[in-house]
Design goal:
The protein has one domain (1-85, 129-171, 182-228): Orthogonal Bundle (Hypothetical protein af1432), CATH 1.10.3210. 38% of the residues lie in helices and 3% in strands. It is built from 9 helices and 4 strands; from the N terminus they run αβαααββαααααβ. The protein has helices spanning 2-5, 15-21, 37-51, 56-64, 138-148, 155-163, 167-170, 181-194, 208-222, and strands at 12-13, 90-91, 133-134, 227-228. The strands form 2 sheets. The protein has a two-stranded antiparallel ribbon. A two-stranded antiparallel ribbon has the order 2-3. Helix 4 runs parallel beside helix 6. The chain is globular and about 55 Å long. Pfam families: MIOX. Pathway: Polyol metabolism; myo-inositol degradation into D-glucuronate; D-glucuronate from myo-inositol: step 1/1.
Length: 229
């Protein structure tokens, strides 16, 4: 998947165009299905903006964190839900019991592979999450898009985008032995961000046209006009 989608040869479009494209996508794992995706993105971003007015990079991160879900869209190959949304976890080391539906991991051949089923597996303690292979999904795709298109967002923003579905880490504290010092600093921001993502969306409808100019100015600040996807 990383090889296929890392080519960035699907389409050229702006961040805002991708936000609008996401309105055609339904995420079956999202508890808030009664509003368009763009409203979820803006609700997350606006809630963060209210509490952290000076961290404009975090506002933009709230807006774009789920844009990788365009992988569900037919124009991106229409990947199945299980391959795009849901919790992520590392491969190449023992599956932690904090992973959702942990009992089913016993069916995975890696479970009994001595190279992969120890605490660190193929990694070393403190190696950094950058050096760990995490299961594919919308997080890693949007991270790749942002990085390959040379965003100027800080590393904490890229960390939030890349690991916001890594619930075993940020909800249960699993796999922390793989983290390096930069990861530990960035995790603080992910904990802050997570309060504004799932289950915390206000029922206040967002006036998209009213807030759009502000977010367009942030997109212009941190991204090129058109991105390769």
């Amino acid at each position: 998947m990383r090889e296929e989608y890392g080519k960035m040869d699907k389409v050229e479009m702006s961040i805002w165009e991708c936000c609008e494209l996401l309105n055609d996508v339904v995420d079956d794992s999202d508890p808030d299905l009664d509003e368009p995706q763009i409203e979820h993105l803006l609700q997350t971003a606006e809630a963060i903006r209210k509490d952290y007015p000076d961290e404009d990079w975090l506002h933009l991160t709230g807006l774009i964190h789920d844009l990788g879900k365009v992988l569900l869209h037919p124009s991106f190959g229409g990947l199945p839900q299980w391959a795009v949304v849901g919790d992520t976890f590392p491969l190449g080391c023992a599956f932690d019991e904090a992973n959702v539906h942990h009992k089913y991991f016993k069916e995975n051949p890696d479970y009994d592979n001595p190279a992969y089923n120890t605490k660190c597996g193929i990694y070393s303690e403190g190696c950094g999450l950058d050096n760990a292979l995490i299961s594919w999904g919308h997080d890693d795709y949007m991270y790749l898009v942002a990085k390959e298109n040379r965003t100027t967002l800080p590393s904490a923003a890229l960390f939030v985008i890349r690991y916001h579905s890594f619930y075993p880490l940020h909800r249960a504290g699993a796999y922390t032995h793989l983290m390096n010092e930069e990861d530990k600093e960035n995790l603080k921001w992910l904990h802050i961000f997570n309060k504004y993502d799932l289950y915390s969306k206000s029922k206040v409808r967002i006036d998209v046209e009213k807030v759009k100019p502000y977010y367009l100015s942030l997109i212009e600040k941190y991204f090129p006009e058109k991105l390769r996807w």
